[in-house]
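Recall that a protein's primary structure is simply its ordered list of amino acids. Everything else, from secondary elements to tertiary packing, is in principle encoded there. The following example makes that idea concrete.
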Amino acid sequence: MGRRKRHTPEEVIARLRDADRLLSEGKSVAQVCQQFGVSEATYHRWRVTFGGMKQDDMRELKRLQEENRRLKKAVADLTLDKMILKEVAEGKW
């Protein structure tokens, strides 16, 4: 059994685009999966997750995820600052 490879979202989107082309040429899902070296379950999971996405959509998703990560960190930092100031104000320091 081969080593598992984690595919990037960009690779998955490109593979799904290739799969659409191969399927339209008359290949079966099993043949496409064999060509890509993935199971049919993986193919169907990719299709559900990334089915309608294009490369621009993926870039926007990554940008939004990064912004969300930064905002969560900022909220956590501010919450910690607020807790510290509250304790200082209550004389617990």
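The longest helix spans residues 55-89. The mean pLDDT is 89.
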